[in-house]
Amino acid sequence: MVKDHSEDTQNNNSVEPIPINQKLDSIIDLLKIIAANGLSSMGKDQPPSIDSSYSQDEKGYRSLRTFFKLDKQLINSQDQTKIIQLEDTITQLKSDYKIKESEQQNIIAELEHNIRKLQQDYAVERERLYTEHENILQKYKQKNQNLESDIFIKSKYIDELKENYNDLLNKKNNLLKINTDLYNKIKNLNKALENSYQLPGIQTTIDNFKSVFNDPDLMNIFALDGKDNQTGIELIRFIAKAAQWNDVQKVWDHLAKKCKSENREATSVEISLLKEIVKIHNLIYRDKSATLYIASRGDRYDYKQMQRGNNASSGDTVTEIWLPGLKNPAQGVEKPVLVNTD
After folding, report:
1. Which residues, in sequence order, are CB contacts of 222 under 8 Å at separation 6+?
2. Which end of the chain has the lower number of beta carbons within 10 A, N or C?
3. Which residues of 166-199 are buried (b: 16+ CB within 10 A; e: fewer)?
4. Distance in angstroms (rounded) separating the CA atoms of residues 73 and 262
């Protein structure tokens, strides 16, 4: 039974593709058969009739038509030279294919090598980045711990400052309260002292004490500063200074100097102050009492007990008594009577 070529073509269209290397080997084998036996039995127009299987030449014919679609005239040709050239061409193609296949394998090997290299580099870089990330993370964790520690310490310090501030504020309030209490006590003492001014025998002392504030030099002698809230204290200071004999003499010298410079008698206030401080001195030092003494108008001038207030005056008769004299506890003349003569 002879198979139709169209049926062969349809069957060949349904077969799976054959690798080119296998195709080339089949063609070379076919060419060797043709070179040895020829193709005369195949005819020019159609393949020879065979029974259940194709002959070797028929198989070669079908192979040529299937793989290369060669012209039928070429297959039926007796030109061995063309067949040999075709064989050489196919051999060269196979060699070129092997070379290209080798090059492709080299390229594939190089690509695989590069891929492995990239994978290794990626693994190394990933490990480096992971390590760097871990180091940075640990660094920031440490910084965070340090910040938390600093915040805790500063918070504790702030709490201590707040506590100290509250303590100081309480102390300040206590001091203000104490100061207010002291001020009220001093105020009450001053008020009590002012009330005591009305007691018999002390009013004169108070008046003389107040007169001192009209003369800065006298204030300096008695160490007074004139602060209103220290009136009671300054009165005590006035009495303490008036009791001192040296301060009594300083007051006399100051009053005598004023009388001489102003060419006048001592005022009643000045004489009252002098009498007051002598009285205070005698109250404190009873066994060392001092006295004031005076002269009378018309008395004869005695230089041992008197002193002219006006150096321009002359004569031996006392005409004015400017300031009483002062005798010490031994009754000796400490300060002579200041007089004017004619």
Report:
1. 212, 237, 238, 241, 242, 247
2. N
3. eeeeeeeeeeeeeeeeeeeeeeeebeebeeeeee
4. 172
Residue 2: its H or E element: none
Q: Exposed/middle/buried for 279, CB within 10 Å: 0-12, 13-18, 19+?
A: middle
**Residue 307 near residue 338 (C-beta atoms within 8 A):** yes
Q: How far apart are the first and last CA of the chain?
A: 198
Amino acid code (one letter) for 83: I
**Pairwise CA distance, residues 80 & 77, whole Å:** 8
Average pLDDT, the chain: 77
pLDDT digits (tens, 9 = 90+) for 179-238: 888 888 777 766 666 665 555 567 888 888 889 999 999 999 999 987 755 567 888 889
Q: Is the pLDDT of residue 294 over 60?
A: yes
Domain map (residue ranges) of the chain: 88-198, 199-341
Structural Rg of the chain based on CA atoms: 74
Contact 325, 294 (CB under 8 A): yes
